[in-house]
Amino acid sequence: MIHIVEIFKISIINIFCFIEIFIVFGLIFSIIENLNNKFIFLSFGKTGVIVTGAVGTFIHELSHLIMCLIFMHKINSVKFFRPIESKNDGVLGYVNHSYKKDNIYQSIGNFFIGIAPIIGGTMMIIVLFRILLPDSYIKITQNIDLKLYVSMINNFNIAGFIQIILDDVSNFVKTILLTPDIYSLRYFIFMFLMYSISTHMSLSSADLKSSLKGLSFIVIVIFAISLITYLFGLNSLNISSLIVKYNIFVSFFMTIGLIFSIVTLIISYILSLVSPFKNFN
Question: Pseudo-torsion of CA 215, 220, 225, 230, nearest 10°?
Answer without folding.
Answer: 130
